[in-house]
Design a protein that fits this description.
It contains ten helices and 13 strands. Helix content is 34%, strand content 16%. 47% of the residues are buried. By secondary structure, the protein is an alpha/beta fold.
Length: 337
């Protein structure tokens, strides 16, 4: 359980060049900071139902859904914390993947079946036990950077089963290829995060897309005003058409930066798991923990991967960064290796 609780922010420290956390940038862009600053004057009032509805309507329009299929979340991670409210008898979690869903389910006493995908970590729906009435899968998957085919994700559906798709990094994929967010299906729940592309990790912004009945079950017993006014404003702002266009442009630049980063890392003799489609890369490095600690001594933070079920101790994850930051990583790795 302690390994499941480990996340990349624990590998970061003050003054370190951060390749451990998959957030693009250290602060939101100027236009978004201005929107949030302007919203500060409303903090004397409780979050309004009207503001929440405006945000839900914008998210719904962005994905071709209806507002009653949208649930605003205090970060995508809140969606995982709410999953036990669906009362699954057996939840299958596809690994290697983000560990928060399994942690939330186990802490609630839900029986969890780990479905560990062998390299190259491609989704095989037939590996999921038939008894599982909930399946959780990431797409693209953290930390492998694998993007599963939409058809394979939807093949997980079975009568009496709900499929939970973690699309925290889907907006970093050009054209959001393979996303199921637009699919209005009673048995598919999609969780989205806005913290990565827009550097909002400290504000906690996300949303769920699903059937109204499923969303109602998720919110049973939920506290009043679970999402604050600034979070609502950020969700609204980041779902508007101009923001969606900017995110699409960012996805293209991430693709370019990733391919260049792969080339440079492979030039050092490092094995990079490809094809990679997310804003992070999975590396295979002998004596990875020692390499990680030596990089840290040189002022660079990378993500340990022995906390992910299904990955060996010789894996590290690095976030995709701009060329000038990659220069620092490559120079340090050349020394360390």
């Amino acid at each position: 359980m302690s390994l499941l609780r480990h996340h990349g922010d624990a590998d970061v420290g003050e003054g370190l060049v951060d390749f451990a956390v998959n957030v693009q940038g250290s602060a939101p862009p100027a236009w978004l900071r201005t929107r949030l600053a302007d919203a500060l004057t409303s903090l004397g009032s409780y979050p309004s139902a009207a503001a929440e509805m405006r945000a839900r309507e914008m998210v719904a329009r962005r994905h071709g859904r209806t507002p009653d299929e949208v649930l605003l979340l205090s970060g995508g991670a809140e969606g995982f914390a709410l999953l036990p409210k669906l009362h699954p008898r057996c939840a299958a979690v596809i690994h290697p993947s983000f560990t928060e869903p399994e942690l939330a389910l186990r802490e609630a006493g839900v029986a969890v079946e780990q479905v560990v995908l062998p390299p190259p970590f491609r989704l095989d729906p037939h590996l999921v036990p038939a008894r599982a009435d909930m399946v959780v899968v990431g797409n693209p998957t953290n930390p492998t950077s694998v993007l599963h085919a939409r058809e394979a994700v939807l093949e997980l559906r079975r009568p009496g089963r709900i499929v939970v798709v973690d699309e925290a990094f889907a907006d970093a994929i050009p054209a959001e290829t393979e996303s199921v967010a637009v699919e209005s299906l009673a048995d598919v729940l999609v969780l989205r995060s806005l913290t990565k592309t827009w550097a909002l990790a400290g504000l906690r912004c996300g949303y769920a897309l699903g059937h109204p009945d499923v969303l109602a079950r998720l919110t049973t017993g939920r506290a009043h005003w679970p999402v604050g006014s600034l979070q609502i404003e950020a969700i609204l702002a980041c779902s508007e058409p101009q923001a969606v266009r900017l995110a699409a442009e960012k996805a293209q630049s991430i693709t370019t930066d990733r391919e260049d980063m792969i080339r440079r890392l492979e030039g050092l003799g490092i094995a990079v798991h490809t094809p990679a489609r997310a804003p992070f890369l999975l590396l295979t490095v002998p004596d990875a923990d020692s390499v990680r600690l030596r990089l840290r001594a040189k002022g660079i933070a990378v993500r340990r991967c022995d906390t992910f079920p299904g990955l060996a101790p010789d894996h590290l994850r690095v976030a995709v960064r701009r060329a000038d930051q990659v220069d620092i990583l490559v120079d340090a790795l050349a020394d360390v290796l």
